[in-house]
């Protein structure tokens, strides 16, 4: 009889714990973003991390394009058709770093073992940058083909797809986390 009287109390407690976990996730996620995004925008980080990173992205993109288009060259963070031909610049907002920061914040905010968090961040970084490489190559050719389509794909479609990539990867990462066993109810 005593166990029956406690059953209605367990459901509200579980709901409170669930709400507390959600609030904790939202707070930690927001704090991580509020720290990481301004950090990325610092001039020293832009000069010593983001610019070299965008330069590397340009060179990797050209490396992938060269077997099919040998006239493409990389100059710093730019991809051009020949040495002085038309091209695109890969600037800070085009590096995929913002999507990675969103993913890192979500992974860090979720209660999981550190080994799984680090693996999720590493694999997620590779997934986002792989899609970003496809984005950059496609934008280069769209820029040559049609400026209107280039602008639309650059400003709207690809921006959303890169952020969506971070979300989808995070959801897949959640799916593969080890299950935590629910605590056994105490006997009366």
Keywords:
188 residues; mainly alpha; 6% strand
Number of strands: 3
Give the terminus-to-terminus CA distance: 10 Å
**H and E string:** HHEEEHHH
Shape: elongated
- Sketch the major β-sheet: 3 strands, antiparallel
What is the percent of helical residues?
A: over 70%
How many structural domains in the coordinates? 1
Structure overview:
The structure is a single chain. The chain is mainly α and 188 residues long. The protein has one domain (2-175). It has helices spanning 2-41, 43-65, 97-109, 114-145, 147-175; strands at residues 72-75, 78-81, 87-89. It has a three-stranded antiparallel sheet, with helices on one face. Helix 3 packs antiparallel against helix 4, helix 3 (97-109) runs parallel beside helix 5 and helix 4 runs antiparallel to helix 5 (147-175). The chain is elongated and about 65 Å long. The relative contact order is 0.11.
């Amino acid at each position: 009889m005593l166990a029956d009287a406690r059953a209605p109390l367990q459901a509200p407690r579980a709901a409170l714990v669930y709400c507390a976990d959600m609030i904790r996730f939202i707070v930690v996620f927001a704090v991580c973003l509020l720290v990481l995004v301004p950090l990325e925008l610092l001039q020293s980080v832009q000069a010593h991390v983001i610019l070299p990173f965008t330069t590397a992205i340009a060179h990797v993109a050209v490396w992938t394009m060269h077997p099919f288009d040998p006239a493409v060259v990389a100059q710093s963070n730019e991809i051009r058709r020949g040495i002085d031909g038309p091209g695109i610049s890969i600037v800070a907002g085009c590096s995929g770093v913002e999507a990675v920061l969103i993913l890192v914040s979500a992974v860090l905010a979720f209660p999981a073992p550190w080994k799984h968090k680090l693996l999720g961040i590493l694999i997620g970084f590779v997934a986002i940058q792989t899609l970003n490489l496809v984005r950059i190559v496609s934008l280069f050719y769209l820029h040559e083909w049609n400026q209107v389509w280039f602008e639309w794909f650059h400003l709207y479609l690809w921006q959303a797809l890169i952020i969506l990539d971070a979300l989808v990867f995070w959801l897949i990462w959640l799916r593969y986390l080890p299950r935590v066993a629910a605590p056994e109810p105490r006997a009366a």
